[in-house]
Amino acid sequence: MTDPNALPNRHIKSRQRIADHGEVFTAQREVRAMIELVNDEAARIDSRFLEPACGTGNFLAEILSRKLRVVYERYRSSPLEYERYAILALTSIYGIDILPDNVDECRQRLYSIWDAAYSTALGTKAKDEARASARFILSKNILWGDALSLRMPGGNDASPIVFSEWSAVNGSLLKRRDFELAYLLEPVRQLAMFSDENQPAHIAEPVREYPLVHYLNIAQQE
Ligand SMILES: C[S@@+](CC[C@H](N)C(=O)[O-])C[C@H]1O[C@@H](n2cnc3c(N)ncnc32)[C@H](O)[C@@H]1O
Question: Quick check: helix, strand or coil at residue 165?
């Protein structure tokens, strides 16, 4: 069986893709060394990470694995708590790539890591609704787009990249609010969503807000 967290052995896919998109993947040793520098954050279950040219998710895969390890260490004796925190860990992982096949590969890879950990921890108590929520979160958090223009594909009519912020409320409920990435990256607003200080210095305005929903039902909300 292949290890879903293993980095591709190849660091390149083709010369053309290097020329067109600078596509060279970071080796696992370097990924781990870099994440180690921010391990306190990487191991915090709800600490948000954005990889703006994520490729197939080399950094996100390592961060997700570290978060899931913490979830397992803390909550393995309580299936419900494990499930809730494993979902929360996934909600905090964000990526953008300009090549759609990389986006697909990245989502699939992160899902495989998540599902392997979830299925091992919960065994027969694992639920397909939780798996559907995990896939839905990845479809919103790992996006096909241009991290320079901050827009989705589509030439002059391209719409802005919009990310969902997921916040746990009262245990099992999730609050989803959508924000334009360009808005979040304005210097005065950087603290809003990808803050490592957790201080809402500015009130961020979402482009859309959703009602509170149980984490097992988020895929039905759209
Ligand atoms: C150097 S690779 C790095 C991939 C991954 N972060 C890693 O370290 O293994 C660069 C990636 O950036 C993507 N890319 C290039 N230009 C981009 C842009 N303007 N917006 C988003 N992604 C871009 C490429 O498709 C490629 O997957």
Answer: strand
